[in-house]
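Take a minute with the sequence and fold tokens given here and flag any structure token that looks odd. Thanks in advance.
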Amino acid sequence: MSKLAIFGGESAVKNKSDDIFMRNITKEMEDAVLDVLHQWKMSSFDITKEFEKAFADWHKMKYGLGCNNGTSALHCAMYGAGIGVGDEIICQSTTYWASCLPVFSLGGTVVFADIDPETLCIDPDDIEHRISGKTKAIMVVHYAGMPADMDRIMPIARKYNLKIIEDVSHSHNCLYKGKMVGTFGDVSGFSLMSGKSFAVGEAGIMLTDDRDIYERALLFGHYERHSEIINPELQKLSGLPWGGYKYRMHQMSSAIGLVQIKQFQKDMVEIDKAMNYFWDILEGYPGIKAHRPPKNSGSTKGGWYCSLGLYKTEELEGLSITRFCEALRAEGVGCSYPGCNRPLHIHPVFNDVDIYGHGKPTRIVNATRDVREKTGSLPNAEALQKRVFGVPWFRHYWPERIEEYANAFKKVIENYKELLQGDTGDPEELGGWHLSKR
């Protein structure tokens, strides 16, 4: 057995170049951006409307609405779905804050649910008992590229006449049993910022088949496009953004998006092949498990954004995830840090903060009941930081290079007993409110 790098041995990853993680930037993409600049059309929306149509057609949806980021796309989706004062949405606690925090500005609130410890998406068994007479929607987050269990979630929504809003920011082109996520619910929102798998810059997009949702979203934050509204009751009140927001998408991002749609499928196939190759090599090794759908299920992880592994400390005699990741980083796996998004239900913003000066916490200012969850009430979400870690996000299928990273994992696992001595355990806090350190 070779000596672990953390103890002075040679690192398993020999080639430290980042090229295996780099995106394909094409001349067509550069030319598209320069064309917008030379025509000085950054704040127009003709190219954005082309992108909206192309993105909606790709998903076989009727309407797309480009926004300046994913947060505003989800905000528009909430307003479009009719979320208002006193309304509740149900959302998993382990997610990026934009999945639910914008509901405060609409006068609504969020009720958090626990996650499934294997998929890391909302636990369908933890939804129904959280529904009240004020529940308006379920926010389904396809977390870290994993499609949520829509077969079990959709019947709950139908039973209680609830809207389904999908947050697809982590899961571009993911399939759930052969169907693209973001197409199951009433409306969906995508982040397209530069870190995402389908990235166009700082941008987002909303998709829906419901004309009323689309037009309400236009009213809310897209005042310059109110001429598209055909509902006479809404048209006569148009002209100003009802929410007071300006959510227009930047056309340099739209131009990149049009190019990305043409090349993303090819790029994604290579990413998927590379990531599955990595996990196939490590199949059966103790202490770790791939965070991916079962093979031959018809479900996929799309572009594998926010690539995570599941950690099984009990299989390595209690070795802490902190020590495990420390050893991996020494071997050259620089992205391996423990944790992911911390559970939102324990943050003060969702418990104590009076954001708008109402004299009591914003979370409950319009609520008919105290919806706040106590620490310990969502055990899977609260325990997650010690159960997940970052893995390399390969963008190219280069087997020899991928094997080096897989060998680093093998080396650490095969020598884990050496790491037990000197293991000081995990710190009190892991992960982050955005994402863990990558």
About this structure: DSSP finds eleven helices and twelve strands in the chain.
